[in-house]
Design brief:
This protein has a domain of 99 residues: Jelly Rolls. The chain contains no helices and twelve strands. By secondary structure, it is mainly beta. The radius of gyration is 30 Å and the shape is elongated. The relative contact order is 0.10.
Length: 206
């Protein structure tokens, strides 16, 4: 029998499956048309429903592309987009990233806490409280190479001094080092400390 890329149906054709299901041939050759609850068409709402995997070999075009996923990946053609649903989520990009507009870095401010461990997602830590502060860095290996942390003294009522016990002591954790030291002391008036990680066991001041 000859093979054609089309079919002409004359007269009544009986399909199978649930109401609204798209017809397909489950077995070949000469299979009987049937349908599935996972592949249906609602003619009232003009909506096609498909539950399962879609493999596209070619171009996929859409006027509106709305991705709904349990990991909360929302990409908008216009307006804001969001990735992830938790501050601990990590999104990796291979290649250059160009930003046209502003960029906000993750910021945390502490006031009354005498001791604080910087969270993996925090990039800027503002120290707005008085007195001695003990700040612990997260492990470099868990953050990756090039991770930046900025610690800023926002409390400007006096000059911080180790002799007076009002300095900020920044400590590495888990055997990590800060410029080959376990602890680096921040002293002075409204000073800041900028660090980057080698992704292994060291933090460097820049």
């Amino acid at each position: 029998m000859a093979e054609f890329g089309w079919a002409f149906l004359s007269g009544a054709v009986t399909g199978g499956g649930p109401s609204g299901s798209i017809q397909f041939v489950p077995t070949a050759p000469n299979g009987v048309l049937t349908g599935s609850q996972q592949f249906t068409w609602n003619d009232t709402s003009k909506t096609l429903f498909l539950s399962g995997t879609v493999i596209v070999s070619g171009t996929l075009q859409a006027n509106t592309f709305d991705v709904i996923h349990t990991n909360r990946i929302e990409i908008e053609q216009y307006g804001p987009s969001s990735f992830g649903d938790d501050a601990d989520d990590l999104h990796q990009f291979s290649g250059s990233v160009r930003i046209s507009g502003s960029m906000n870095l993750s910021y945390k401010q502490i006031t009354t806490q005498a001791e604080y461990t910087i969270q993996p997602h925090t990039m800027i830590l503002g120290i707005s409280g008085s007195g001695y502060k003990s700040i612990s860095l997260p492990a470099a290996v868990g953050l990756g190479a090039g991770r930046v942390v900025i610690i800023k003294d926002e409390y400007n009522s006096y000059t911080r001094s180790k002799a007076a016990g009002t300095h900020i002591a920044v400590s590495a954790s888990g055997g990590n080092k800060i410029e080959h030291q376990d602890t680096f002391d921040i002293e002075g008036d409204s000073v800041s400390l900028s660090l980057y990680s080698d992704g292994d066991d060291k933090w460097f001041i820049y």
